[in-house]
């Protein structure tokens, strides 16, 4: 294994120190929600306890402190994804909220009856359903890019999928089921060559990949704080300024206006136009602390460690009889989903749980992928840089027990 001080890293995460059912917790569900380092927990606690006042409104001390932290968090996010301007960073409740924002606002402005929106077969429900709702509202059509048996996105089909009526392509950087890293930069180039803008769902991607939205040249990029070792209830929409300027607001309320009268309301500039109501300033600050943590631990070493751990997990799991892994195409992040002959995924989850092992099972918010692979559900072990080889061994032993009990 690459030199990476796993003992020190694990020490940073209080949730990993606990026992469940009298057994050490083995947390293999980070793709759903990652655990938070102590510094994030403390940052949230400290703000809740002391630095709590509404932002962008009052001019008293606490309000100013909170506003500054919120706007500093925006700058931290901007640097993290290398956006050109802070106006291009909109805080939302998470990936789902950010996608719904674009689906509504972009849809209102640019989508008409007969138009087409393209998604892929490997999307999370969050990157399908908002587009379906938009298509229903507008009389547009949803088109789908297929994946092959290895989980590779068949991007060679894109030129035949795009037409003069295609308004947007929505694609995950990394599938939450397959773990396969999609060639987003290439996809964006291809789409732009057909005058199609691209929304990238970075919920899984940003956790494992260095993201540079300017280099990717994507038009929109979205992600959630809670998968990036940060708080729940906060996420980010990056949008190119020229797009965001053209979109109408998503929700109306306080903070998103310039002036209100019964005759006419005018809206705030970017990004506040899209941040109606009291923002989650504590979440934004917690996210910034999480981003700083991730950058401080040496991301390159963390990635290398995760990759080695993933390769080990795949080797060990592949050696098990009747087990099939989905998403075998390279490159792949540390999301490993599989099925076991004759074992229902929920039964496996229940048995593993009693051994202290947390995995995700079922349809993984990806019904269309379950249909693609003709399954009722999968078992997913998603690894983070705080997991260990010993935890993989425990998973494999646990699965052997599952097989014994079920057969
Ligand atoms: N997109 C992907 C690829 C995801 O993995 C997830 C969550 O698992 C989401 C979207 C939805 O994220 P959230 O529930 O944080 O809005």
Which keywords apply here?
407 residues; alpha/beta; Aspartate Aminotransferase, domain 1; Aspartate Aminotransferase, domain 2; 2 domains; seven-stranded mixed sheet; four-stranded antiparallel sheet; 15 helices; 17 strands; 40% helix; globular; binds pyridoxal-5'-phosphate
Write up this protein:
This protein is of the alpha/beta class and 407 residues long. The chain folds into 2 domains: 6-30 and 298-406, Aspartate Aminotransferase, domain 1 (Alpha-Beta Complex); 42-295, Aspartate Aminotransferase, domain 2, CATH 3.40.640. The protein is 40% helix and 17% strand. It contains 15 helices and 17 strands. The chain has helices at residues 6-11, 38-49, 61-81, 95-110, 129-138, 158-161, 184-193, 205-208, 213-216, 241-244, 281-296, 299-318, 345-354, 367-372, 389-406, and strands at 19-20, 23-24, 26-27, 89-92, 116-120, 141-145, 166-172, 198-201, 220-224, 235-239, 257-260, 265-267, 323-326, 335-340, 357-358, 360-362, 378-382. It has a 7-stranded mixed β-sheet with strand order 4-10-9-8-7-5-6, sandwiched between helices. Helix 3 crosses helix 11 and helix 4 packs parallel to helix 5 (129-138). The longest helix has 21 residues, at 61-81. The two termini are 36 Å apart. Bound molecules: pyridoxal-5'-phosphate. The site of pyridoxal-5'-phosphate has 14 residues, from helix 4.
């Amino acid at each position: 294994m690459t030199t990476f001080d796993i003992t020190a890293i694990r020490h940073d995460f209080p949730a990993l120190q606990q026992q469940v059912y009298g057994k050490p917790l083995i947390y293999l569900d980070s793709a759903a929600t990652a655990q938070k380092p102590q510094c994030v927990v403390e940052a949230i606690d400290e703000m809740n306890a002391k630095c709590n006042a509404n932002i962008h409104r009052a001019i008293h001390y606490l309000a100013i402190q909170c506003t500054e932290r919120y706007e500093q968090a925006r700058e931290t996010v901007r640097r993290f994804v290398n956006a050109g301007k802070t106006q291009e960073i909109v805080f939302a409740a998470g990936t789902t909220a950010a996608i719904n924002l674009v689906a509504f606002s972009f849809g209102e402005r640019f989508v008409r009856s007969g138009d087409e929106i393209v998604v892929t077969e490997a999307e999370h429900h969050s990157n399908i359903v908002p587009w379906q709702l938009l298509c229903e509202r507008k009389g547009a059509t949803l088109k789908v890019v297929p994946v092959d048996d290895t989980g590779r996105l068949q991007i060679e089909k894109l030129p035949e999928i795009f037409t003069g009526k295609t308004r947007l392509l929505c694609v995950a950087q990394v599938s939450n089921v397959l773990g396969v890293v999609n060639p987003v930069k290439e996809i964006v180039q291809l789409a732009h060559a057909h005058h199609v803008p691209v929304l990238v769902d970075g919920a899984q991607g940003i956790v494992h990949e260095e993201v540079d939205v300017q280099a990717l040249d994507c038009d929109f990029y979205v992600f959630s704080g809670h998968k990036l070792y940060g708080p729940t209830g906060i996420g980010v929409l990056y949008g190119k300024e020229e797009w965001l300027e053209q979109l109408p607001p998503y929700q109306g309320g306080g903070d998103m206006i310039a002036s209100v009268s019964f005759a006419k309301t005018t809206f705030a500039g970017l990004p506040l136009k899209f941040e109606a109501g009291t923002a989650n300033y504590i979440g934004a600050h917690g996210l910034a602390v999480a981003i700083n943590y991730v950058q401080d631990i040496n991301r390159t070493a963390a990635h290398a460690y995760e990759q080695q751990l993933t390769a080990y997990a795949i080797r060990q799991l592949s050696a098990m009889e009747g087990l099939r892994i989905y998403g075998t195409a390279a490159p792949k992040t540390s999301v490993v989903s599989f099925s076991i002959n004759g074992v229902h995924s929920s039964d496996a989850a229940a048995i593993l749980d009693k051994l202290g092992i947390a995995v995700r099972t079922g349809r993984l918010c990806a019904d269309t992928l379950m249909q693609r692979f003709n399954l009722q559900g999968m078992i997913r072990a998603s690894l983070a840089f705080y997991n260990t080889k010993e935890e993989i061994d425990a998973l494999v032993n646990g699965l052997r027990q599952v097989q014994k009990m079920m057969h």
